[in-house]
Amino acid sequence: MKKLLITLLIPYCAMAVDAQTKKPVAKKTVKTAATPVKFVSALDSASYAFGMSMAASLKSNGLKTLNYDMLLRGLKDEFAGQKTLLSQQSAQQAIGNTFKTVSQAKFSANITEGKKFLEINKKTPGVQTTASGLQYLVLTQGKGIKPAATDSVLVHYKGTLLNGKQFDSSYDRGEPITLTLDRVIPGWTEGMQLMSTGSKYKFFIPYDLAYGERGAGQDIPPYSTLVFEIELLKVNGK
Description:
Elements: H1 2-22, H2 42-60, H3 68-80, H4 88-106, H5 108-121, E1 128-129, E2 135-140, E3 152-161, E4 166-169, H6 170-173, E5 177-180, H7 186-192, E6 200-205, E7 226-237
Antiparallel strand pairs: 1-2, 2-6, 3-4, 3-5, 3-7, 6-7
């Protein structure tokens, strides 16, 4: 058996020698192992843990990367009590803008769907569009008084997403609801001031006049354009 193995290996050895005489063999790059990190104090491990916690929180909110040099600079400047490169207001605005960009990318389908719908819907006979982008259709025109932005009103309503899924209805609950117009979404505040008591309108509300980038609970996703049928039963006044 040993003799057989030697016999089998001879041709391969010869081929290897021949290849070496014909062309040089490329040098292999040897990867050096990363130097292991050692925690020499409780502060070391806590500092690393803070980094882990920050990253996990940011990732859970959709952020994928940061400029780590600037992150470290911000940490150092703040801890050292030095004059920071940004004011607190500018810092909050920068953070808000970043998360807004991340959110818009994540829910871009909702934004596109809403814009396309409203662009087509405004051409529907009877649909009117206000300067803010709110669209409405008069289903029944009442003859009573119109509410002011600070008035309390009694209404019946039904709200749906663009796909027709209903997320709320006072009709299903069997009783109207009393609300104050300066404490509702902007689309309601604006739209209901167009209505006379006894009217029933259908509103098509862009996301920025509805629940915006946050959405509302599990039923209304961020950046959702909403459809409401609203019946103004009574103006209670202030």
